[in-house]
């Protein structure tokens, strides 16, 4: 069996199909465009996502991001947009990616196992009223699921961003954003678009608050 992940999940039929396409460029572009158009159906959950993140920040909370592989990079990218700047000048916003500190990640993985790398950080850093965002294409990464379960006990607002179906992550988050695709790369592209829209909405609110007279 062809496997692609640490989780041992088999490559999906659509992943395999993509590698056999006679015109991979056109097929990737068409699949991307079709998926982006389908994101209109996520308008309401995206608005809720932005409202929850803004409300958490306004009450002194923080937004934490986590994920594996491409989703780790995406977590860092989105945290950076909020701490630094997206498109407007406004105060820095408190966002933290749980994927960055190699000493913390390796000590937890070495002493407790890789499945605990995010959960242990959630236990140490998250407080009631914070937001935790889990980015996963399968929804089945054990370290992300375990961290969400830990966050529930801490009264942290939990957002799951997944591909079609949502895997195990769907069950343990309060807000679920489902990108309707089974192709890992296409899901990640759509998740970054959702993330950038979120940054725009949250930043706009922070900008308005900072410039109110
Ligand atoms: O970026 C890619 C594939 O596009 C990979 O690095 C991918 O993120 C890794 O295989 C992850 O381990 C997949 O985890 P998940 O999205 O199922 O939670
Ligand atoms: Zn990728």
From TrEMBL:
<dbReference type="GO" id="GO:0005975">
    <property type="term" value="P:carbohydrate metabolic process"/>
</dbReference>
<dbReference type="GO" id="GO:0005737">
    <property type="term" value="C:cytoplasm"/>
</dbReference>
<feature type="binding site">
    <location>
        <position position="77"/>
    </location>
    <ligand>
        <name>Zn(2+)</name>
    </ligand>
</feature>
<dbReference type="InterPro" id="IPR035461">
    <property type="entry name" value="GmhA/DiaA"/>
</dbReference>
<dbReference type="GO" id="GO:0008968">
    <property type="term" value="F:D-sedoheptulose 7-phosphate isomerase activity"/>
</dbReference>
<comment type="function">
    <text>Catalyzes the isomerization of sedoheptulose 7-phosphate in D-glycero-D-manno-heptose 7-phosphate.</text>
</comment>
<dbReference type="InterPro" id="IPR050099">
    <property type="entry name" value="SIS_GmhA/DiaA_subfam"/>
</dbReference>
<keyword id="KW-0119">Carbohydrate metabolism</keyword>
<comment type="pathway">
    <text>Carbohydrate biosynthesis; D-glycero-D-manno-heptose 7-phosphate biosynthesis; D-glycero-alpha-D-manno-heptose 7-phosphate and D-glycero-beta-D-manno-heptose 7-phosphate from sedoheptulose 7-phosphate: step 1/1.</text>
</comment>
<dbReference type="GO" id="GO:0008270">
    <property type="term" value="F:zinc ion binding"/>
</dbReference>
<feature type="binding site">
    <location>
        <position position="81"/>
    </location>
    <ligand>
        <name>substrate</name>
    </ligand>
</feature>
<feature type="binding site">
    <location>
        <position position="188"/>
    </location>
    <ligand>
        <name>Zn(2+)</name>
    </ligand>
</feature>
<feature type="binding site">
    <location>
        <begin position="68"/>
        <end position="70"/>
    </location>
    <ligand>
        <name>substrate</name>
    </ligand>
</feature>
<keyword id="KW-0963">Cytoplasm</keyword>
<dbReference type="InterPro" id="IPR004515">
    <property type="entry name" value="Phosphoheptose_Isoase"/>
</dbReference>
<protein>
    <recommendedName>
        <fullName>Phosphoheptose isomerase</fullName>
        <ecNumber>5.3.1.28</ecNumber>
    </recommendedName>
</protein>
<dbReference type="GO" id="GO:0097367">
    <property type="term" value="F:carbohydrate derivative binding"/>
</dbReference>
<feature type="binding site">
    <location>
        <position position="188"/>
    </location>
    <ligand>
        <name>substrate</name>
    </ligand>
</feature>
<feature type="binding site">
    <location>
        <begin position="110"/>
        <end position="111"/>
    </location>
    <ligand>
        <name>substrate</name>
    </ligand>
</feature>
<keyword id="KW-0479">Metal-binding</keyword>
<comment type="subunit">
    <text>Homotetramer.</text>
</comment>
<dbReference type="GO" id="GO:1901135">
    <property type="term" value="P:carbohydrate derivative metabolic process"/>
</dbReference>
<feature type="binding site">
    <location>
        <position position="141"/>
    </location>
    <ligand>
        <name>substrate</name>
    </ligand>
</feature>
<feature type="binding site">
    <location>
        <begin position="136"/>
        <end position="138"/>
    </location>
    <ligand>
        <name>substrate</name>
    </ligand>
</feature>
<dbReference type="Pfam" id="PF13580">
    <property type="entry name" value="SIS_2"/>
</dbReference>
<dbReference type="InterPro" id="IPR046348">
    <property type="entry name" value="SIS_dom_sf"/>
</dbReference>
<comment type="similarity">
    <text>Belongs to the SIS family. GmhA subfamily.</text>
</comment>
<keyword id="KW-0862">Zinc</keyword>
<keyword id="KW-0413">Isomerase</keyword>
<feature type="domain" description="SIS">
    <location>
        <begin position="53"/>
        <end position="208"/>
    </location>
</feature>
<feature type="binding site">
    <location>
        <position position="196"/>
    </location>
    <ligand>
        <name>Zn(2+)</name>
    </ligand>
</feature>
<dbReference type="InterPro" id="IPR001347">
    <property type="entry name" value="SIS_dom"/>
</dbReference>
<feature type="binding site">
    <location>
        <position position="81"/>
    </location>
    <ligand>
        <name>Zn(2+)</name>
    </ligand>
</feature>
């Amino acid at each position: 069996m062809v496997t692609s992940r640490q989780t041992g999940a088999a490559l999906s039929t659509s992943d395999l199909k993509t590698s056999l396409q006679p015109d991979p460029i056109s097929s990737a572009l068409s699949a991307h465009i079709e998926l982006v158009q389908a994101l209109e159906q996520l308008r309401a959950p995206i608005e809720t996502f932005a409202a929850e993140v803004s409300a958490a920040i306004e009450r002194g909370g923080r937004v934490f991001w986590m994920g594996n592989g491409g989703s780790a990079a995406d977590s860092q990218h989105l945290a950076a947009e909020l701490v630094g700047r997206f498109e407007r000048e406004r105060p820095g916003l408190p966002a933290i990616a749980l994927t960055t500190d190699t000493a913390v990640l390796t000590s937890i993985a070495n002493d407790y196992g890789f499945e605990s790398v995010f959960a242990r950080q959630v236990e140490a850093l998250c407080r009631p009223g914070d937001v935790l965002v889990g980015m996963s294409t399968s929804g089945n990464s054990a370290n992300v699921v375990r961290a969400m379960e830990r966050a529930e006990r801490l009264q942290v607002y939990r957002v799951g961003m997944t591909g079609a179906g949502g895997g195990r992550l769907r069950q343990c988050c309060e807000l679920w954003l489902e990108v309707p695709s089974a192709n890992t790369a296409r899901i990640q592209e759509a998740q970054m678009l959702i993330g950038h829209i979120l940054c725009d909405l949250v930043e706009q609110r922070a900008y308005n608050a900072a410039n109110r007279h």
